[in-house]
Amino acid sequence: MNVSQLVQAAHAASTYKLAMADAIIWQCAQVHKARLYTQDVDLKGLPDVVYQAKSGKSP
């Protein structure tokens, strides 16, 4: 990621109340026009995020 993209990630972290690591992951997906699949509830509802809750069962 370049500086501009990191600044956008910092803005997303502030706007969406995300941890910086989550914001960087989401921003990276945005840069690559990718859909992000996750079980991280903090990313639920963001554009281009597909959230599926954990099943609660251990393997």
What does this molecule look like?
The chain has 59 residues and is mainly α. It has one domain (3-51). Helices cover 44% and strands 10% of the residues. The chain contains two helices and two strands. It has helices spanning 3-16, 20-31; strands at residues 36-38, 49-51. Strands 1-2 form a two-stranded parallel ribbon. Helix 1 (3-16) crosses helix 2 (20-31). The chain starts with a helix and ends in an 8-residue tail after the last strand.
Question: Which characteristics define this entry?
Answer:
mainly alpha, elongated, single chain
Task: Explain the layout of strands and helices.
Layout: H1 3-16, H2 20-31, E1 36-38, E2 49-51
Parallel strand pairs: 1-2
Helix pairs in contact: 1-2
